[in-house]
Structures are given as C-alpha cells and as structure tokens.
Amino acid sequence: MIRLTEINKTYPGAVPLHVLKGINLHVERGELVSIMGASGSGKSTLLNILGILDNYDSGEYLLDGTLIKDLSENKGAEYRNRMIGFVFQSFNLINYKNAVENVALPLFYQGVSRRKRNMLAMEQLEKMGLADRAHHLPGELSGGQKQRVAIARAMITNPSIILADEPTGALDSSTSRDVMALFRQLNRQEGKTIVIVTHDPGVGRQCDRVIRISDGLIIPDESIKTDN
Ligand code: ADP
Ligand code: MG
Q1: CATH numbers and ranges of domains, the chain
Q2: Residue 226 pLDDT more than 60?
C-alpha cells in the first residue's frame, strides 16, 4: 500500500537541514503500525510526505502502486482526498462549527449536497458513539470526544489510509486507550491501513508493528532486538 525507497528530504535555509536520510519503508494494506522516535527525528516530515502534504527531494514513494513524485497541486489533492484521512494531535476542528458540520466538511469540498453530507456525517458520529454530541461545538466537548470527531471527519470520505500525527498526545492515558480502541476497530472491522506517529510506547504496543526512526533513518528490526 505504502512503499518508500531511499527517501531524502532537506529543508532549505541558511543552514539546510537534511531531515530524512534514505528512508525505506513498506506498509501493507490493512496494517496498523506506529512510527516512534525522538522529537526532531523526522516523524512529522515523514508523515507529511506519506500524506502528500509535502514533497521529497530524492527516492521513490509508491502509494497503492502509483508513483507520488512532483505531482501538480491538483493531482496531489486528488490522490490525497481519495486515499487519505488525517488525524492530528490538536484535533484541528473548526471552533465555530458543530461536530456534525466539522465531520461533513470534507464532503463540502467534494461538492456533496448539504442534506447528504449531514446525513453521512451523522452516520459517522453514530459509529463513533457521538450521536448525542452532534450539535455541540468543539469547545463543549472533552479531548477524547474532539479526537473522535476528528477521526469521524477523517473517515467521512472513506479513505483507505488513515495517517495520525501524535493523535493521543493531548489526551490522558485512559482517553488515549479509548482512541486507540477506535483506531483498532477501524483497522480490524473496516480494513483501514493506519499509520500512527507517537511518543507513547503504550500506543506502540497497541499496534501490529512499531517502526523506529532515529536521526532521519529507519532503525532495522534486527538492531531493535539486539538493543532489548
Ligand atoms: P518530529 O515530528 O520527529 O519531531 P519533524 O519532522 O517535525 O520531527 O522535524 C524534523 C526536523 O526538521 C526538526 O529539526 C525540525 O525543526 C525541522 N523542520 C520541520 N519542519 C520544518 C520546516 N518546514 N522548515 C525547516 N525545518 C523544519
Ligand atoms: Mg512531529
């Protein structure tokens, strides 16, 4: 589903920063994986490349067999909207829109009628156990509820892949477990391929596989074993 070969990325500047130094990574369809590594190791950069939010300098990114490289903004947006849902640490909900409007928003950009998108958004919220919160603003929801609304928004376009950047970073440990249970459910029951960037070893343990990144390189599994 996701195949990266020798991906390099440098942020230009007075002192250019070589952040990804030859990333090789393969995630199969239907996997639930986490990416762990120290702050500044390049996790978000990597996730942004996976999500076609950012470009890379050299190497190859195949997404479901399609080469993702130097795409026009339109092509990039088309693949992204068709394939990928995003979840962020800080939820990124729109504060003056209620839960159902937030969830429905990606469908607005796809030109779906208001009636249809609100109906589909309501269905997603019901699946997330949030039907009774549908008409509340984000400010009236708990952290865990906000993140479930954000996950519903990520799911509304029926993407094959969900990319989450520190999705439990702003949540307490019991709420984190609830959010992870939801990711596991979407993975097991709906077959979503899910990649979760995290600092939290507890989150890593709830995934099928932990990919470790250090200083812009993936640490091979072997060396993880010898370290233990
Ligand atoms: P992580 O998510 O693992 O903490 P990031 O991928 O966010 O790491 O960042 C890796 C390095 O790249 C950091 O040193 C960060 O300061 C730098 N960086 C991130 N984004 C940019 C950017 N847009 N321009 C310049 N440097 C950046
Ligand atoms: Mg980050």
Answers
A1: 2-223 (3.40.50.300)
A2: no
